[in-house]
Design goal:
The protein has 2 domains: 46 residues, no CATH class; 139 residues, no CATH class. Helix content is 44%, strand content 11%. The protein is built from 8 helices and 4 strands. A two-stranded antiparallel sheet has the order 1-2. It has a two-stranded antiparallel ribbon with strand order 3-4. A hairpin with a 4-residue loop joins strand 1 and strand 2. The longest helix is centred in the middle third of the chain and has 34 residues. It is rod-shaped and about 105 Å long.
C-alpha cells in the first residue's frame, strides 16, 4: 500500500515444523514482550485472518549487525547529550565567564593582569612593549581607584595615547561607531578567555570547554561559591 508505513520487530527463531495437510512450513518466532505491540501491529492483531494471504519479509541479523544497530542508537543519545553540553558551554562562555565576580573565584586581579600582558595588543596585534590598560567606567571605578578584571593589552605607545587623547582617538584608524562599547566588549572577552583557560587547567583531561560535563562545572562552581551564576543556563 502506498500510504502504509513499513514496520519491523525483533524476534528469536524457536522452531519450525511442516504441516503437510496445508502444505506449509510453520515457523515459530519468539518476540520480546516489550515488542509485542509492534509485532501484533505488523501481523494484524492477536487473531489474524488465516484466509488472508500476505507477504512478510524475514531478515536474519547477526550479532555484529545487532551491535552496530545498538551502537548507532547509543551514538544518537550521545549526540543529543553533546548538543546539550555544547549549548551549556556556549552560554557559560558568553554569559558567565565575563563576570568579574566569577573571575575572582579563579584567581587574583594581579594574576589576570599578568596574563593580559602576555597577549598581543588588542588594537593591532603587536607583541612588544605590552602593558595592561585599565578600562575604567563610572560604575566600576572611582577617584584614584582602578577596577579589577577590567583591562586590555596595549603597547606602551597606545596606552599613553589612551590616557592623553582618549579611547576614541586611539581607535580613529578603525572608525568604530562607539569606542566605549568596543573597549567594554574587549575587556569582557579577555575575562572570558582567562576564565576558560583556568577551567581547562583545572579540568586537564579535557581539551575544550564544551567537552567538560556540565555536572563537573556545577560542582566546581558550587565549591567556589559562584554556582548562582549558572542559574538559567539549562
Amino acid at each position: 500500500m502506498e500510504n502504509e508505513q513499513p514496520a519491523v520487530f525483533q524476534a528469536t527463531y524457536h522452531q519450525a515444523r511442516p504441516v503437510m495437510g496445508r502444505k506449509v512450513l510453520q515457523i515459530i518466532l519468539e518476540v520480546p514482550i516489550e515488542q509485542q505491540n509492534a509485532a501484533l501491529a505488523v501481523l494484524g492483531g492477536v487473531m489474524g485472518d488465516i484466509n488472508k494471504s500476505e507477504w512478510f519479509a524475514v531478515a536474519k541479523i547477526d550479532a555484529k549487525a545487532a551491535n552496530l544497530r545498538n551502537q548507532h542508537r547509543e551514538e544518537q543519545k550521545t549526540t543529543m547529550g553533546s548538543q546539550k553540553t555544547r549549548s551549556f558551554a556556549q552560554r557559560l562562555y558568553m554569559e558567565v565567564l565575563s563576570n568579574p565576580n566569577v573571575c575572582k573565584a579563579f584567581g587574583t586581579d594581579a594574576e589576570f593582569q599578568d596574563w593580559v600582558r602576555r597577549q598581543p595588543s588588542c588594537i593591532n596585534g603587536d607583541t612588544y612593549d605590552i602593558v595592561y590598560a585599565h578600562v575604567r567606567r563610572a560604575n566600576n571605578s572611582g577617584t584614584a581607584m582602578k577596577p579589577e578584571f577590567s583591562g586590555v593589552p596595549l603597547t606602551d605607545k597606545q596606552h599613553r595615547m589612551q590616557h592623553q587623547s582618549g579611547e576614541k582617538s586611539l581607535l580613529a584608524s578603525f572608525d568604530p561607531s562607539d569606542a566605549k562599547e568596543w573597549f567594554d566588549a574587549k575587556a569582557a572577552d579577555y575575562r572570558r578567555k582567562w576564565c576558560r583557560e583556568k577551567l581547562l587547567s583545572h579540568f586537564s583531561d579535557f581539551d575544550r570547554l564544551r567537552d567538560i560535563p556540565p555536572g563537573l562545572i556545577k560542582e566546581l562552581f558550587n565549591q567556589r561559591g559562584i554556582v548562582v551564576y549558572l542559574n538559567g543556563l539549562e
